[in-house]
Specification:
By secondary structure, this protein is of the alpha/beta class. The chain is 36% helix and 26% strand. It has a 6-stranded mixed sheet, with helices on both faces.
Length: 271
């Protein structure tokens, strides 16, 4: 059996008296997409903040390549190859594409005794990296990021992560604010990243998008792992029901039927 690239064992996270995560155990493999599913407040954001170095687990263990892992900051996580792309790409609207691509790691060239930002190299590298992901409309690295569409911003952020050697790519709701065509392009980029051997953690509310790119699925409910399964083991309807909390849906249907019976209506009348 291959060694997981990332492994969480019985991870718990509390903020004072509030328990946010309870006993989370997960395995994330290179060249696979783990889809992390759950409703608002399920604990998804806290979990990815632990993976990306923002928070430390209260108890439990995190391993990378079989070795214990502890981050003091997001920079530590980035240096180990864990890149996080948030919903709006983590880009800077008033920066150029080339500058945003290299922010914090700018290429330089010597001018006399000084070293200055190498705009030409940055622009050419950024445009080439984004076009490699299929975004052919971007051909000018001096263009402002604010003029890009949501899908193009996501592509820019993902291209940056891949360029700087990400081993694990965490995508936080990357298609949530996108139209159908843009979302489809981002999903194709996710598949490309997976095929190149990167481990992808894909956080989403959208079951269709998850089924399109996912190999492995975990559903969180109220900070606990409610389900952990592989592609093909559950239907779209079963996954949707899990995300909503299956037992709560059954209770709701029973309440509706009771209300209809009291009102003298057939249950089918409101379905």
């Amino acid at each position: 059996m291959p060694v997981p690239l990332l492994k969480l064992t019985n991870v718990n996270k509390s903020f004072g008296p509030i328990d946010v995560l309870h006993g989370i155990s997960l395995e994330i493999f290179a060249g696979e997409t783990l889809c992390l599913l759950g409703d608002n407040g399920a604990g998804k954001s806290t979990l990815i903040k632990i993976l990306s170095g923002v928070h430390k687990p209260t108890t439990g263990a995190v391993e990378m390549d079989g070795a214990p892992l502890a981050f003091d900051s997001p920079r530590d996580a980035a240096e180990r190859g864990i890149a996080t792309v948030h919903q709006f790409g983590g880009t800077f609207p008033l920066m150029s594409i080339g500058r945003s691509f290299f922010v914090g790691a700018e290429p330089t060239r010597r001018v006399g005794p000084l070293r200055v930002f190498d705009r030409k190299t940055a622009n050419e590298t950024a445009v080439r990296a984004v076009r490699k992901l299929g975004i052919t409309r971007i051909d000018d690295g001096d263009r402002l990021v604010g003029g890009l569409s949501g899908g193009e911003r996501q592509a820019l952020a993902i291209a940056r992560a891949v360029h700087f050697g990400a081993k694990v790519l965490i995508l936080d709701e990357p298609t949530a604010a996108l139209g159908v065509k843009e979302a489809a392009h981002v999903l194709r980029i996710v598949l490309q990243a997976r095929q190149s051997g990167i481990a992808v953690v894909f956080i989403t509310h959208n079951v269709v998008h998850a089924l399109t790119v996912g190999d492995h699925f975990a559903v969180l409910i109220r900070g606990a792992k409610a389900a952990d399964f592989r592609k093909g083991e559950k239907s779209r309807e079963e996954i949707t029901d899990l995300m909503a909390g299956g037992e709560h849906m059954a209770e709701l249907e029973a309440e509706i039927e009771g209300f209809n019976a009291a009102a003298g209506q057939a249950p089918e009348a409101v379905r």
